[in-house]
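User: My collaborator sent over this chain with a note saying "see what the structure looks like." That's all I know about it. Can you take a look?
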Amino acid sequence: MNGLKALVRGAIPPDVPSILELNRLGYEEGDLLLCKEDEIRALIGCGFVAVHEEKVIGCLFVRIYASVLNGRVVDNGGRWCEIRTFYVLPEFRRMGVGSDLIGSGVQFARRQGIETVMTVTRKPEVFGRFGFSERLRPGQQILYLSLKSRE
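Assistant: Without extra context I'll predict from the sequence alone. Here is the result:
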């Protein structure tokens, strides 16, 4: 990590303002969807932050998906999740911080019994080092629908 001493730990409620700022920066760079505070708070138990000299310099969340049946959330058996809201401050990139965050997220998913981890990214090479690929299981497809008006 080029001598950088960064600690990756579970996110806690006092981290929310820093995470929101990282999310805003990632949104401005075009890498993240903008999250609201209540979204971050809802995922805090599935989040990780990288801290350097008491400053939050990166974040990542694991969103475990469940099904809804008759208006009630039904656990999907913990089979798949999404890594999202992944961001590292530019001055701390290429120092292993992002890799440490992704590794923590993947380990968390593994401990939860997740079978498939997915992410949406403009930087597939970062995730490729962890075994992420564009391959789908036989019979699976990814479909997109743009609701943006065609003016």
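A starting point for your reply to your collaborator: Residues 8 and 50 are 4 Å apart (CA to CA).
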